[in-house]
Amino acid sequence: MLRQLAKSAMYRLAAWEPLFGPARRRRLGGKAVVLMYHELAEDGDDIEAWTVVKRTDFLRQMDYLRSKFDVLSLAQAIARMTQPNGPDRPVAVVTFDDGDRGNRDILLPIIEALDLPATIFVATGQVQDRTPYWFDRLVNALQVDAPVTVSLPSGSSAAYTINETRGAANWIRIQELLSSLKKLEPARREQVVDDMIKRIGPQEPRYRGIAPLSISDVRELADCPLVTIGAHSHCHNILTQIDRRAALESAVRSKELLESWTGRRVNYFAYPNGDFNDAVASAVVEAGFEAALSTVPRPWGRGEPLFALPRIGVGRYDSIDVFKLGLVGGIGQFLN
Q1: Integer Cα distance of 210 and 49 in angstroms
Q2: What is the mean pLDDT of the chain?
Q3: From CA 6, how far away is CA 4, in angstroms rounded?
Q4: What is the mean pLDDT of residues 21-40?
Q5: What b-and-e string marks burial along 99-119, b requiring 16 or more CB atoms within 10 Å of the CB?
Q6: Residue 37 burial (CB < 10 Å; 0-12/13-18/19+)?
Q7: Cα dihedral angle (130, 128, 42, 325), rounded to 10 degrees?
Q8: 88 burial class (0-12, 13-18, 19+ CB within 10 angstroms)?
Q9: Which of 100, 62, 113, 105 is nearest to 236 (CA)?
Q10: Euclidean distance between CA atoms 23 and 12, whole angstroms
């Protein structure tokens, strides 16, 4: 407890505006920050998932962002950042990955009320099939009050007990489990996750569950002039784990579906899990995209390659101080 209090005090001091403001302006002048979110929920929704940010926290973050940055669409940001010179005031871009239900129910009204441009990268497989991807299915199954212990397949001694605690500490255990599962071959992983969910069994969930957008939801989002729809693959596999042909097919399929659903051109791609290499990036280029975003957590400088753009993740357990320091790449970068 004392250690956590000391850490919070350190972040609060580092993010104190008279101290942080000059450093932010010095480090971010002429640069851009691209923020990566996934899902929003109402403040009273009880879910243990870093990917699901509370509405009030998101509004507070946007209030700060709009006071210190030019918040632009992704297209506007690319236009500015590909010019050799430009305004010194930094740029911010707000993005959401996966294409979950809260993007329509909670985010869209905020976008319209705040006149806030945002890019939503939709993974089309779950929208088309009306079934969440494996990671959300498992997170949904873990939203119960009792502790749950799950193990990886035979041959591994790893076991993970979830719900012994709450909050960020509980998410660390969930994230460890998800990270281990990501190392499995995709088809094998699906089977392992299905088996885990069966062993957890039917219990009363604390939260209604993370669920995908519908096709009509995607169309409604695309009809908002402040929203840019981007592609996040069709399969949402880690594209470096599959061959280039499969990665290309997934990228092309997501682009084709989104364009057919919305009637709008889809120019931008976000790599699932942020993972890419030269083969994956070349497949995304071949699929007809104009830029692609990773999850490398740092600001974006002028002239950087458009198919390896960095993004800074924002999650449920991030205080406003952690959020502010994340804009410059984290407290480590701030203290250097």
Answers
A1: 10
A2: 93
A3: 5
A4: 94
A5: bbbbbbebbbeebeeeebbbb
A6: buried
A7: 130
A8: exposed
A9: 100
A10: 15
Cβ atoms < 10 Å from Cβ of 157: 7
* Mean pLDDT within 105-115: 98
**H/E segment holding residue 39:** strand 39-41
Q: Please count the other Cβ atoms lying within 10 Å of the Cβ belonging to residue 136.
A: 23
Domains and CATH numbers, the chain: 2-131+210-335 (3.20.20.370), 134-200 (no CATH)
Residue with tokens 């041959």: 155
| b/e sequence 271-302, b meaning 16+ C-beta within 10 Å | bbbbebeeebbebbbebbbbbbbbbebbbbee
Long-range contacts of 19-24 (CB under 8 A, 24+ apart): 20/324, 20/325, 20/334, 23/328, 23/334, 24/68, 24/324, 24/327, 24/328
What end-to-end distance do the CA atoms of the chain give, in Å? Answer: 27
**260 token code pair:** 């057919």
Going by their DSSP bridges, the two strands 268-270 and 291-293 should be labelled as parallel
**What confidence tens digit (pLDDT) does each residue in 291-313 have?**
999 999 999 999 899 999 999 99
More confident residue, 97 or 9: 97
Residue 86 has pLDDT above 80, yes or no: no
Q: Determine the Cα–Cα distance for residues 264 and 8; give it in Å rounded to an integer.
A: 45
**CB contact at 8 A, 119 and 268:** yes
- Gap between the Cα atoms of 287 and 122, Å rounded: 16
Select from 140, 111, 112 the least CA-distant residue to 51.
Answer: 140
Q: Is the pTM of this model over 0.90?
A: yes
Q: What is the pLDDT of residues 188-232, one digit of tens each?
A: 999 999 999 999 988 788 888 999 999 999 999 999 999 999 999
CA–CA distances in Å: residue 63 to residues 58, 60, 118: 9, 5, 14
In this prediction, residues 242-259 reach a mean pLDDT of: 98
